[in-house]
Design brief:
The complex is a heterodimer.
Chain A lengths: L7 E4 L2 E4 L13 H14 L4 H9 L11 E6 L24 E3 L6 E3 L3 H5 L4 E8 L5 H10 L13 H8 L10 E4 L22 E3 L14 H22 L4 H19 L11 H7 L3 H15 L3 E5 L12 H25 L6 E6 L3 E2 L13 E2 L3 E7 L6 E3 L1 E2 L6 E3 L2 E2 H11 L7 E4 L2 E4 L14
Helix pairs in contact in A: 1-2, 2-7, 6-7, 8-9, 9-10
Chain B lengths: L3 E9 L11 E6 L5 E6 L4 E5 L6 E3 L3 E5 L1 E3 L7 E6 L5 E6 L3 E8 L2 E2 L5 E4 L5 E6 L5 E6 L4 E5 L5 E5 L6 E6 L5 E6 L3 E6 L5 E6 L16 E6 L5 E6 L3 E5 L5 E5 L5 E3 L5 E4 L3 E7 L23 E8 L7 E3 L5 E5 L4 E7 L1
Classes of the chains: A alpha/beta, B mainly beta.
């Protein structure tokens, strides 16, 4: 755990030194801070997750306002390309799902994605993703950091943590990166802020449309009580701060300042006043409610939001795949359709990058760990993204008739991240220093942006 | 006490495309010919000659009778399947939304469907001939039950009532009732004169299919006893028996997904990875007692003795007794159907 002042932090199980602080602090000196930090950890679901992000927003005041946003909907488990964006009905590998036409002539997608079919002319569909790591934990890490865990010299940050570092919220009262829900699988599957440190960790919300845990309801009484506690804390902390690195102490104090600001805008996370019709349109699901919250967050100025679609590797359909697949795809499509509609209708689409993806795809063979199902497959898989001024209605790459081979235009994870960063006006091959080593945003500066999307 | 004896030959089907086994979904005996058909993980159904010699060596499975893939739909998988009570035709329902009937001639279905219709706005999951063979009922993932004239597939009735996908349909042996079961956990019993709902039975087990390996939601399979007294309902976690007249639950077991009644005796079979067979005592199939607050206690297990159990592997579906009750067919996930003599 990173206590803000202590020297070691643990991000996704990887220990590292972030702050050079050789002072051993007596426990009593941390009593108040620790309590706050524990609350932050609870809110974040990871050590120091919640309040850690609040540090990051401190730099917003000096950050250049960009105005671009990202909503990443992560489909943990490895969604089947056959049952989403690259169906092969009638082929031996096709499975029982059939396809439906989309708004793009000649392009069909899964039958349980009618909304995404309707909106296909607003999105970019990539049918030629290719990668090499078929492990959920490592594949999830690669697909969200552009780094293979085995290649690490420093724990790689989630790409939205990098975005928060590069393009923090213009409003210092708002978090730059919020994570709605989290998969309960593995330590690498949902990467943290890595070497960037807790400042750029997502503000963790538990999902189901809920805001951070333990954040009190905003009221004059709450704010007054907080201010009283702050005055007390500062008086106790003064001797603690003496002789310590002032930057760390300021950073620590900054967390409490941020809590105060969040208290004044606690309704940021309150979706109870959203229209009942919206809840119907987004579907009666955790994902639907998280998408309503994501819409509100980006509308209010939070630039980067990651939404977890179900926990427990729900898209990992090794067995009994095709019947339950209908439910998850339908739930996904309902929420995505409503979200895209609203981003367009509310004028957010041109500045919001929406990314719909998992960590890899699934085998053409219908032979899972228990039939019928599909195993992990990295050779050729699909995802979709759109908005943020990118070209619309593109289908990039293709696979052969059976979906067993890439046919053209391979797109690597590195290409994908170069594309995303370029979309956000971030140099994909920029380096940050960690322990005097240059660390590029994309591993080994691999990949090139997919120019056809710009 | 009945006895189950394995017929020492396996029935196997494959398409040669090395894309995974033809996992069985439903099996049906032909009432006259020694033939068996099965819907499986394919756009076609498997056809087996039960009298053929098991003379083909199949890798990993030994000597088998290798079936043929017939009744092709162009896309999707065949999900629902039934054979006409007199064996004149068979009907297939597909995830391609179509219902097709295939004339049966010279011991096998024709190469082309004699009729086909776009039956539902979603997968056609359940298909069942009425006892007189004149009607076909279908269960659709559009939440509807439909009734068709089997001669020309003219639509006769569209029946609403389920809130989610409908997975199975069954007729009482006198044809007076049509029963449907859905993933909403409900069983609806309808009068086939008026097509009105007589009663709705809450089987339960409905879930939103969240997570990596969710249990099946609600009802998966239905079966009606030979005397139309008992309704067997199998879902993702439970196999329950209801009094069809009253709708009350009379027995329940923690077996899942499959249920079938013997056509000539008080024998019930059910279960997915392990198929169990009970010789049940009909006079002891009674509703659970009520506690002091008038609330029904948990239902009893199936009264009577289980006399056989067959382990057949995960996600093994397909379970039916032959019309004379002398055999039972069990499908499994490896693309195999096994036969057992019931003595």
């Amino acid at each position: 755990m990173n206590s803000g002042n202590c020297s070691e932090t643990s991000i996704d199980g990887l220990s590292m030194n972030i702050h050079a602080d050789d002072t051993v602090c007596p426990k009593y000196e941390h009593s108040l801070s620790r309590r706050a930090l524990l609350q932050g950890a609870a809110a974040g679901g990871v050590a120091f997750g919640g309040f850690g992000r609040l540090f990051g927003a401190d730099s917003a005041a000096v950050a250049r306002q960009n105005g671009k946003r990202v909503i990443l909907v992560f489909m943990s488990g490895g969604p089947s390309q056959f049952e989403t964006w690259d169906p092969k009905p009638g082929q031996p590998t096709g499975g029982p799902h059939i396809s439906i036409p989309t708004a793009l002539p000649g392009i069909h997608i899964d039958e349980y994605m009618p909304n995404l079919a309707r909106l296909a002319d607003r999105m970019i569909t990539v049918r030629s993703m290719t990668s090499s790591n078929g492990d959920h934990d490592q594949g999830g890490y690669v697909a969200q950091t552009a780094y293979n865990p085995s290649a690490l010299v420093a724990p790689a940050p989630h790409w939205l943590s990098i975005c928060a570092h590069e393009k923090p919220s213009a409003n210092p009262g708002l978090p730059s990166y919020v994570m709605l829900g989290k998969d309960n699988f593995g330590s690498l599957h949902v990467p943290g802020a890595g070497f960037l440190g807790a400042k750029y960790q997502a503000l963790q919300c538990p999902g189901d449309g809920s805001g951070p845990q333990d954040l009190p309801q905003s009221s004059e009484e709450t704010i007054a009580a907080f201010q009283r506690r702050e005055a007390l804390r500062k008086s106790f902390s003064r001797p603690f701060a003496e002789g310590r690195d002032s930057r760390l102490v300021q950073s620590h104090d900054g967390a409490f300042d941020q809590v105060g600001r969040l208290l004044r805008s606690a309704d940021l996370f309150d979706i109870s006043d959203e229209s009942p019709a919206d809840f119907d349109r987004y579907g009666d699901s955790r994902l639907g409610r998280d998408c309503i919250l994501a819409r509100k967050l980006v509308e209010e100025g939070v630039p980067f939001v990651r939404i977890q679609h179900q926990s427990g590797l729900a898209w990992d359909k090794h067995r009994r795949a095709f019947q339950s697949q209908r439910w998850i795809t339908n739930e996904f499509d309902t929420a995505m359709g409503a979200l895209i509609d609203d981003l367009i209708d509310r004028g957010l689409w041109k500045d919001t990058l929406l990314v719909l993806m998992g960590e890899f795809g699934r085998t053409p063979q219908i032979q899972g760990q228990g039939q019928p199902g599909r195993n992990h497959w990295t050779k050729c898989w699909s995802l979709s993204f759109g908005g943020c001024g990118l070209q619309e209605g593109l289908v990039i790459g293709s696979t052969n008739d059976n979906g067993t081979e890439l046919k053209d235009r391979p797109v690597t994870i590195h290409d994908l991240f170069c594309t995303f960063y370029k979309t956000l006006d971030i140099d994909p091959h920029k380096e940050l220093e960690f322990e005097n080593r240059p660390i590029p945003f994309v591993e080994d500066k691999l990949g090139t942006p997919m120019e056809e999307v710009f | 006490m009945p006895k189950l004896t394995k017929v020492e030959k396996k029935f196997f089907v494959d398409d040669g495309n090395n894309r995974g086994p033809m996992t069985m979904l439903r099996v049906r005996f032909h009432p006259r010919d020694s033939k068996l058909v099965a819907s499986c993980a394919d756009r076609r159904i498997a056809w087996f000659d039960l009298t053929a010699e098991a003379d083909q060596e199949v890798k990993g499975r030994g000597k088998c009778v290798v079936g043929e893939l017939v009744c092709p739909h162009e896309i999707g998988w065949v999900r629902g399947l039934d054979v006409h009570p007199e064996g004149k035709q068979l009907a297939t329902g597909g995830s391609d939304r179509t219902l097709r009937v295939w004339a049966w001639k010279d011991g096998r279905p024709g190469e082309q469907p004699s009729h086909q219709v776009e039956a539902h706005g979603g997968w056609v999951e359940g298909v069942a001939y009425a006892p007189d063979g004149r009607l076909i009922a279908t269960a659709g993932f559009d939440g509807l039950v439909k009734v068709w004239d089997s001669a020309d597939l003219k639509l006769l009735q569209t029946l609403e009532g389920h809130k989610r996908y409908v997975d199975d349909v069954a007729w009482s042996s006198d044809g007076k009732w049509l029963i449907s079961g859905g993933e909403d956990g409900q069983v609806i019993v309808r009068d086939t004169q008026s097509w009105q709902t007589l009663r709705t039975i809450e089987f339960g087990g409905a879930n939103n299919q969240s997570g990596q390996i969710p249990k099946h939601s609600g009802v998966h399979r239905l079966a009606i006893s030979r005397d139309d007294r008992w309704l067997g309902v199998a879902g993702g976690e439970q196999l329950s028996v209801f009094d069809l007249q009253s709708g009350e639950i009379v027995a329940s077991e923690r077996d899942r997904m499959q249920v079938a009644f013997h056509p000539k005796a008080d024998v019930l079979a059910g279960g997915e990875s392990e198929a169990k067979f009970w010789s049940f005592e009909a006079d002891k199939l009674t509703p659970p007692e009520k506690d002091k607050n008038g609330k029904p206690k948990s239902p009893q297990g199936i009264p009577g003795k289980p006399f056989a159990s067959v382990k057949r592997g995960e996600w093994s579906l397909g379970l039916q007794f032959s019309a004379d009750g002398k055999q039972v067919a069990l499908g499994n996930a490896a693309g195999i159907v096994e036969l057992y003599d019931v003595g």
